[in-house]
Amino acid sequence: MTRSNDDGFYEVYWPRATSVGETRPLAAKLDTLNGKRVLQLWDFVFHGDKVFALLEEFLKARFPKVEFVSWREIGNILGSDEREVVASLPKRLRALKIDAVITGMAC
């Protein structure tokens, strides 16, 4: 076995590309879900229909006045028209008066 003369240092490369998107501040955290409209977004992977039903049940027990807008309203967010669906989300969220979003399952 030959010993290299690298002194324990190796040349490495960062595997990610340079970030080109602008950083924006996060939305303020909601103090409660009571009285809020929560949209479910799903990519039709895994069992989102079952998971969202369980989440609704759990969250309504804790926040009885929360209103859910079903994933059926937007449809599949992953597919051949994914770019258009995602690009239209801000406008759709405003039109539906959405306060929060739960997205799943493998988004």
What spatial order of strands do you see in the largest sheet? Answer: 2-1-3
The major beta sheet can be summarized as: 3 strands, parallel
Helix content: 25-40%
Mean pLDDT: 88
User: Could you list the spans in which at least 5 consecutive residues all have pLDDT below 50?
Assistant: none
Radius of gyration: 21 Å
Question: Helix and strand string, N-terminal first?
Answer: EHEHE
Structural class: alpha/beta
Number of strands: 3
**Overall 3D shape:** elongated
| Relative strand content | 5-15%
Number of helices: 2
Distance between the termini: 47 Å
Descriptive overview:
By secondary structure, the protein is of the alpha/beta class. Helices cover 27% and strands 13% of the residues. It contains 2 helices and 3 strands; from the N terminus they run E-H-E-H-E. It has a 3-stranded parallel beta sheet with strand order 2-1-3, with helices on one face. Strand 1 (37-42), helix 1 and strand 2 form a beta-alpha-beta unit. It starts with 36 loop residues before the first strand and ends with a strand. 7% of the residues are buried. The model has no long low-confidence stretch (mean pLDDT 88).
